[in-house]
Design a protein that fits this description.
4 helices; globular; four-stranded antiparallel beta sheet; alpha+beta
Amino acid sequence: MNSSLVRVAGCLLLAGFAAACGAPVDIGAASGAGQKFHDQYNQQNYAAIYGDADPKFRAAVQPEEWTKLLTRVHDKLGKETDATRIGFNVNYNVGGSTVTMRYSTKFQLGEGQEEFVWLKSDDRLRLLQYNVKSPVFDESNQQ
């Protein structure tokens, strides 16, 4: 094996180890960011969530739309009471890494599944996407 190929393989191996070592830290940070989201959601401080979100999120979602969405979630489901992580994914990219966290979430008035996508940039996680699903939002079940 030629020596430059060995060096490249060694660098790739070290990069893989570095990424693997960073994943638990990023998952922990994303868990903390999710808790902060829920705390602000429970306080109905939707503007703070929006203000902390990534600029790409804010470019795609207007503040009024965000407030309307979270108000609807809060009206239908109430406060978050417990969130259990059911999945995650960490994706490392040159332009910024993403951490996706999926939760089975209990609210005062029902249950749902939430998905958060956090963008890591400058060692900070910012909300890039948020999705919540619950049977209470299925209009075909309403009478």
